[in-house]
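---------- Forwarded message ----------

FYI, see the DarT domain-containing protein record below. Original note from H. follows.
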Amino acid sequence: MPDIRNIKEQKLLYHLTSLENLDGIFQEGLKSRADLTVFADVADSEILKKRQALELDRYVPFHWFAANPFDGSVQINRPNSKFVLISVYRSFAKQNGWKVIPRHPLANNEI
């Protein structure tokens, strides 16, 4: 796991999705949950409620490192499913105006 103190210096961002979503991603690109109608959902329902309350469902979630708790939980809860880990250079995200923040937006228990 990367050193959390250097989180702002990480080179890549990661997004985990079901292999079933790959055709749609190749055809139409990554889309936010708010812009999708048909897709294989791998998200945690409690996290979804919090993301929606903060209007984060309008963004595609990425993580700073691949072996994060969310990805691990998804794979453990769906042992027969296949997943794809999409990585994007942080510099690409910055050049394209993505909102990249140095901590998880749901990290605060009060949210």
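H. also flagged this: Residues 45-53 form the longest helix (9 residues).
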